[in-house]
């Protein structure tokens, strides 16, 4: 019986150790490597060519969204299963659009996680019920509304963060101003750049100014 070769990408060593111990009970799974952020994860993907990447979202450096997108673009045969504490649709949809094959929460029991790994390894999609509901509701909402342009698709929080970026604030300064974590700011910034199809902070600021997007955030 061939084993599902899994690469774990998470910045918490204790969690990786726990997952390794948990998955060692299943004969059809083999942990082939670990990485502590998206950049290292990409290096390990290239080196190890796993079947499934078990990916966290919020990590220092390159986060799970950007890493998932790059893995999907460069190694479309490799499946990415998101393992996270977040169930909000603002996280689920961008990750699926970036190429993730599944979404399971860190509260999941061992049977749920192994089932998710087996499902995505076969080329199928796995979503926990709360994530599936969020996706269905969001797609229904989108179907009832006129198709917006890129700037109209931004949430009020994204517009708020964009205004701070245009003002020249760092991630840490934005986090303090909005009483959120730096990782959350980094997530929103990555999502902003993805939605607007820009690839640098300079391009992001230029886009915002050219489209007069700051007026929308007032």
Your description of this structure?
By secondary structure, the protein is of the alpha/beta class. It has two domains: 4-138, 3-Layer(aba) Sandwich (Rossmann fold), CATH 3.40.50; 151-209, Orthogonal Bundle (Arc Repressor Mutant, subunit A), CATH 1.10.10.10. 53% of the residues lie in helices and 13% in strands. It has ten helices and six strands; from the N terminus they run E-H-E-H-E-H-E-H-E-H-E-H-H-H-H-H. It has a six-stranded parallel β-sheet, sandwiched between helices. Helix 4 (89-98) links the parallel strand 4 and strand 5. The longest helix is centred in the middle third of the chain and has 16 residues, at 129-144. The protein is elongated. The relative contact order is 0.11.
Task: Please tag this protein with its features.
Rossmann fold; 10 helices; Arc Repressor Mutant, subunit A; 218 residues; six-stranded parallel β-sheet; alpha/beta; 2 domains; 53% helix
Topology record:
Elements (H helix, E strand, L loop, with lengths): L3 E6 L3 H11 L5 E7 L2 H11 L3 E4 L8 H11 L4 E6 L4 H10 L3 E4 L4 H12 L4 E2 L1 H16 L11 H11 L4 H8 L3 H15 L4 H10 L8
Parallel strand pairs: 1-2, 1-3, 3-4, 4-5, 5-6
Helix pairs in contact: 2-3, 3-4, 7-9, 8-9
What's the level 1 CATH class of the largest domain?
Answer: Alpha Beta
Name the CATH superfamily classification of the largest domain: Response regulator
Characterize the main sheet.
Answer: 6 strands, parallel
Global Rg: 18 Å
In the sheet with the most strands, the strands line up as: 2-1-3-4-5-6
Overall average pLDDT = 82
